[in-house]
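Example 3.2
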Amino acid sequence: MQWRTSNCDTVCGIVMEREIVVDTNVFVAAARSNRGAAFKLVSMIGKGAFAIHVSVPLVLEYEQALMEHRADSGFAVQDIDDLLDYVCAVAKPHRVFFLWRPELSDPKDDMVLEVAVVGDCDTIVTYNQRDFAGAAAFDIRVSTPGEFLADIGAL
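Structure, written as tokens:
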């Protein structure tokens, strides 16, 4: 918990930093365009507005997807490596020792949900909100990048 005056939720007078997991499709969207909410969200990682949570398998999925979409993004391999190195340096890493699979329809989405649960995150940020319908059972919100940025006052 951190004492902050903005971009956080207030509970009983205590200001709490938002804890999130970012789905792979947000990183891909940010790489493809520097104009949208996804790019703004990724640009804010490590700046104190929220804390991002990751696991090794999730970062490997980010890498695979970004490499697959490299031609669309104009990123060089080194750019992707630099981005992911930075994310790993500022993120809260987790090892997931439990699996509920299949909880959701896509095993890759289960991986995101598992990080959110082990990290006690309040939000999963994704463009595929329907795919995370099971997150509500764990009291985890599912928001698009635009909705999340509006929630924290960054839009």
